[in-house]
Design a protein that fits this description.
Layout: H1 2-14, H2 22-48, H3 56-75, H4 79-87, H5 92-120
Helix pairs in contact: 1-2, 1-4, 2-3, 2-5
Length: about 120
């Protein structure tokens, strides 16, 4: 699933004005979205009383480690090229479904994070 989501972010960046850096920008955006997922789960665990919410330093460690892990996964031996080649032969219907998967993943991530943040502040 990580490979497919990376591919979807890669395709998204190919259609932007920064297409020449699509491989790197896809990895950065994906790491930010993944860290948002981790922070959302961390916030839920904080509300249950299992852990404390991360400090700024812990957040920087989390984001940095995700960037390093995804960079090593996709850029050592140019693995991102294999991932792109694996999914590049999609037909138009699969591309549309993949676009909706990406839109839903991003929307659910940000809506969930927004709800968790409002709940943590006592607004919900």
């Amino acid at each position: 699933m990580i490979d497919y989501l990376y591919y979807r972010f890669y395709r998204l960046w190919l259609h932007s004005s920064l297409a020449e850096g699509a491989a790197f920008m896809a990895m950065l955006l994906f790491s930010v979205i993944l860290s948002t997922n981790v922070l959302m789960v961390w916030g839920i665990l904080t509300q249950c009383g299992f852990v404390k919410y991360p400090s700024d330093f812990q957040y920087y460690i989390l984001e940095g480690s995700l960037i390093v892990l995804l960079s090593s996964r996709f850029f050592i031996k140019n693995r991102y090229k294999k991932v792109v080649a694996k999914y590049d032969d999609e037909n138009p219907m699969q591309r549309r479904v993949g676009m909706w998967v990406l839109i839903m993943y991003i929307a659910i991530t940000f809506i969930g994070f927004f709800i968790e943040a409002l709940y943590r502040q006592g607004k919900i």
